[in-house]
Specification:
The chain is built from 10 helices and 17 strands. It is an alpha/beta fold. The strands form 3 sheets. It has a 9-stranded mixed β-sheet. It has a 6-stranded parallel β-sheet with strand order 3-2-1-4-5-6, sandwiched between helices. A two-stranded antiparallel ribbon has the order 9-10. It starts with a strand and ends in a 6-residue tail after the last strand. The protein binds alpha-L-sorbopyranose (SOE).
Length: 383
């Protein structure tokens, strides 16, 4: 297929800037697509850092002010991989300039911010997508197929957790390039918006809307030096967050996230128990899907560990040969592939800004519930 060129302008050159750049660079090598991303410009405040990033990843030019990037006539897609407090202004300006907008998760720092972003992209009619990358793990995509085929029957339970341990040290500063996730003004919230948001996005996708939540949060380290001001300041983020939920389909759920689970680096796990079958998945072993089917012959019944590497598994025909697994970075490549294929078909697949706002409605309700100590309703999305 001869692919049409699509000029990308990336904002942010941290960890996520790398995952996105790698996806744009690799996607046409493995997927036959109607569009080919061109790494036209990358933008970050630090001129030396952005120049080094551009050289490393092959961006043709650099900017140090995102407003300049957004105004550039040669940029067609603005891809936002900068800290959470920059998502809304950049996305709204990019949409107003008629650009397609891709944005890292969470969409906004809270649902009201997300609502302004949704309004901007929908008013401008520009394609939009949020990088909730775990939807595109082949094993998670296989879980989605099995659920949609009705193989689990009625769903009783949904269980998810995302455990990390990198902020336990009490002298770790908050704020600044590496640690903005600890600064509530920049991040919006702690693990609720950073980690539970992933669990919620996957859950809404796999199991439908959540109606009500009852949550508790904790900030274990109450004060930290701020990397930018040099002062010791109150910590405003939640270090740990757990909630009960009722899904609209009648199933019950538990969700938990923390950065204080010593020994766990990025343990995102989910389990779904249905009338006929159960599914379990674990990010540390991401190419496997655990499956139990009660309808199997009794003597042989048991948990199967499906090695999701075969050509008929989601995305896998684009990679190596059966039995050879892929990893984390491929989830971003899959998302870029789906975006580019969707553009040509006139329908970009989710999660759209609107889908991601639904996640922010849940995280807002979680934080409200933790403050109030009561069950909170998750409001329906406005049309
Ligand atoms: C936090 O450590 C973090 O990098 C999140 O921000 C990402 O979204 C998650 O995928 C891995 O952990």
């Amino acid at each position: 297929m001869s692919a049409k060129l699509l000029n990308i302008g990336l904002v942010g050159c941290g960890f996520m800037g790398r995952t996105h750049s790698n996806a744009f660079a690799q996607v046409n090598r493995f997927f036959d697509l109607p569009y080919r991303p061109v790494l036209r410009a990358v933008c970050a405040r630090d001129a030396a850092k952005v120049a080094a990033f551009a050289a490393q990843w092959g961006y043709a030019s650099t900017e140090t002010d995102w407003r300049k990037l957004v105004e550039r006539p040669d940029i067609e897609v603005v891809d936002i991989a900068s800290p959470n407090d920059t998502h809304a202004p950049i996305a709204i300006a990019a949409a107003a300039a008629g650009k397609m907008v891709l944005c890292e998760k969470p969409l906004g720092r809270h649902a009201a911010e997300s609502a302004r972003m949704v309004e901007a992209v929908e008013k401008a009619g520009v394609p939009n997508m949020v990088w909730y990358n775990y939807r595109r793990v082949p094993a998670v995509a296989l879980a989605k197929q099995l659920i949609d085929e009705g193989r689990l029957g009625r769903i009783f339970h949904y269980r998810a957790k995302f455990l990390q341990d990198w902020t336990i040290a009490a002298d770790l500063p908050q704020g600044g390039p590496g640690l903005w996730r600890l600064d509530v003004h920049v991040a919006g919230s702690g693990v609720t918006g950073d980690l539970l948001a992933h669990c919620i996005d996957t859950a809404l996708w796999l199991n439908g809307p959540i109606d009500r939540v009852a949550a508790m949060t904790e900030t274990f380290v109450k004060e930290r030096p701020h990397a930018l001001t040099g002062r010791v300041e109150a910590v405003g983020i939640d270090d740990a967050s757990a909630f009960l939920a009722r899904f609209r389909n009648g199933s019950l759920a538990t969700f938990e996230a923390t950065r204080y689970a010593r020994g766990h680096k990025a343990l995102y796990t989910l389990e779904i128990n249905g009338e006929h079958a159960s599914i379990a998945w674990d990010l540390h072993d991401l190419h496997r899907l655990a499956w139990f089917d009660h309808r199997d012959e009794g003597r042989l019944r048991g948990w199967r560990s499906i090695h999701v590497t075969d050509g008929d598994h989601p995305y896998m025909k684009h990679w190596w040969v059966p039995g050879l697994q892929i990893g984390y970075e491929h989830t971003f490549i899959h998302q870029a592939a789906d975006f580019l294929a969707g553009l040509a078909e006139g329908h970009v697949p989710g999660p759209s800004f609107r889908d991601a706002m639904a996640t922010d409605y849940v995280t807002d309700a979680v934080l409200r519930s933790a403050r109030a100590g009561s069950w909170e309703q998750v409001p329906p999305l406005p049309s």
